[in-house]
Amino acid sequence: MKWLEHHAPGLALVMPALATVVLLFILPLGASITGAFQTGSGLGLDNFRKAFELYGTDIAYTIGIVTLSVVLTALLAIAISGYLTLGEHPVAVAALRWLYRWPMFIPFIVVGQLARTFLAKNGLMNNTLVGLDILTPMQTTGLLDWRGIIIAFVWKQAPFVTLLLAGAMACVDRHALEAARNLGASRLRILIEIMLPQVVRTLLVGLVLSFVTMMSVLSVPLMIGSQSPTMITVDMAFRINTYRDYGVANALGLISLGITACVAWVYLKLSLQEHRAS
């Protein structure tokens, strides 16, 4: 009782956040786990067998799309962060610093609609190219497939990773950078050999979070690339809306959770190895 009375103010402050986590995350997760193993005859793995039989290609497709998007996001974030840190044109640096953050404030559902408007066969991109006489109307092609999904994912997540990475690069010792410049090192070499090794942990954090985010998005693949193969989130929505099959949908959700858990485990293992080495 004394312990409770002593910690009552702190518990009162924590309880709203704890209740939110339990109601919105822990309970739904528990219901999904139990629902994934429930079958007509009791508990079993029938939902997982059905999920892999029907959507095995979509699972591999999802992993491929998200992995490629993460790689391209990393490359773009490194390029932008490097220029923001090492760029020598103040106007260009200021303009880039102002522009690159905007996609962070746009919801994914809006990103999907923007991508449809921009990447369609008669969309803004092709109309602009036709207007500039770069392409003819017969030469235009739409990108509302896996390419459009990747473009939308990278455009949306690159600013988030860039924000983390640019902040980490700004903390790198400037004396080492100036010494490398005095010895004749190019900006690209300074970026790759001096800066990146010091901020790689921050980069990995941003990429893991981006991987998890992309795995959970429904609107973008539904609006841009809902044809077969498609992503797991679309399959989950299809099983629920069409067949009311929550068992297979929950199984797909656990498969998605397992994929993201593997990525997080790899990150944690690399972090522990780095910590032990230091």
TrEMBL record:
Q: Which domain of life is it from?
A: Bacteria
For the biological process aspect of GO, one term held by this record is:
transmembrane transport
Q: Where is the ABC transmembrane type-1 domain?
A: 59-267
- Keywords per UniProt: Cell membrane, Membrane, Transmembrane, Transmembrane helix, Transport
Q: Which GO terms describe its cellular component?
A: plasma membrane
Entries under SUPFAM superfamilies matching the protein:
MetI-like
Query: Does Flavoprotein show up as a keyword for this record?
Result: no
Q: Which residues cross the membrane?
A: 12-39, 59-86, 98-119, 148-172, 203-226, 246-268
Membrane topology of this protein: Multi-pass membrane protein
Subcellular location field: Cell membrane
Instruction: Tell me which family the UniProt entry assigns to this protein.
Output: Belongs to the binding-protein-dependent transport system permease family. CysTW subfamily.
Which named protein is this?
Answer: ABC transporter permease
